[in-house]
Amino acid sequence: MSQHNASNQSAISRDAIFATPLDKLASFSFDEQVASVFPDMIKRSIPGYSHILGMTGVMAKRYVPEGGRIYDLGASLGATTLSVAQQLKHLNDVAFITVDTSAAMTERCAAILAENLPQRSITNLCGDIRSLEYQPCDLILLNFTLQFLPPQDRQPLLDKLFQALRAGGALVMSEKVHFQDPRQAQLLYELHHDFKRANGYSDIEISQKRTALEDVMLTDTPETHQQRLLDTGFSFTSQWFQYLNFASFLAIKGDS
Ligand code: GEK
Q1: Strand 121-126 and strand 246-252: pairing?
Q2: Quick one: which atom of ligand 1 is closest to the CA of 79?
Q3: Kindly report the CA angle at 62 between 226 and 98, in degrees rounded to 5?
């Protein structure tokens, strides 16, 4: 796990990574090319992304006390942390820790957060969220990250996060999902592609990105997510958001 310091790299450009036909389609990876277009890519690809981030900040207010600690796991460029910090202006001594395996993301994240949150205590770690030693914390942000872990690693990670959370603390987890009912699954899958087309992606971009993500991102159903959270020991879970095949969950650790 390495710690990154800020350098100035916050330029945003349009995502055209899959716009031209590629002979050899490598698996999707969060490299420099992806990091450089990420804000544009994620807004045009994930329905409700800005709503989820905005509300994550609002929810944070309930669970983070003065002197609290927040982990943003798979932070990419720190957009969730920015939203949370915006809502916690009244708390000066909250510790923010972002974690991401991608060096390109972590470097840019450090620069963006240093520029936008100069007074905050922020640690940017480049490493795997499965092997991190977590400190006691109040809020864990897991927005669109669990889906990139092999399925067998998901429950062990949640168990580890649950151990680190203080009683009364919360996990906000957002994911792409699929559905058991074949008609619902197919319709929402197609509507998501319509959403991407409406946001300016061509058919070739949509299909090449889908192929690149095939082995890298495996989705669960909303029911699997809810059950896994309950199995972890959370005393309360709610799927508070759904837009097409994207959902967000809030899970609370009870007092005992
Ligand atoms: C946002 N949360 O803007 N350990 C650490 N990081 C990981 C791991 C891992 N094992 N696997 C993947 N990542 C962000 C968006 S993006 C979602 C999250 C997306 C990182 C990966 O490098 C990438 O930056 C992030 O998780 C997923 O709200 O692109 O669909």
Answers
A1: unpaired
A2: 3
A3: 75
Pocket of ligand 1 (CB under 6 A): 30, 42, 74-76, 79-80, 99-102, 105, 128-130, 143-145, 148-149
Helix axes 49-63, 79-87, angle to 10 degrees: 50
Residue nearest to atom 19 of ligand 1 (CA): 144
* CB contact burial 122-145 (16+ within 10 A = b; e otherwise): bebbbeebeebebeebbbbbbbbb
Beta-carbon-side half-sphere exposure of residue 178 (alpha carbons within 13 Å): 12
Rounded Cα–Cα distance for residues 103 and 107 (Å): 6
Model pTM score: 0.90
For 57-103, write each residue's pLDDT tens digit: 999 999 999 999 999 999 999 999 999 999 999 998 999 999 999 99
DSSP string, 192-204: HHHHHHHTT--HH
Q: How far is CA 117 from the centre of its chain?
A: 20
- Helix 103-116 vs helix 32-45: angle between axes, to the nearest 10 degrees? 70
* CB-CB neighbours of 220 under 10 Å: 19
Sheet with 2-3, strands from edge to edge, namely 2-3, 121-126, 95-100, 69-73, 137-143, 165-176, 246-252, 236-243
Contact indicator for 237, 250 with CB cutoff of 8 Å: yes
| All structural domains of the chain | 49-178+216-252 (3.40.50.150)
Distance CA 167, CA 248 (A): 21
**What tens digit of pLDDT does each residue of 166-192 get?**
999 999 999 999 999 999 999 999 999
C-alpha to C-alpha distance for 37 and 12, rounded to whole angstroms = 6
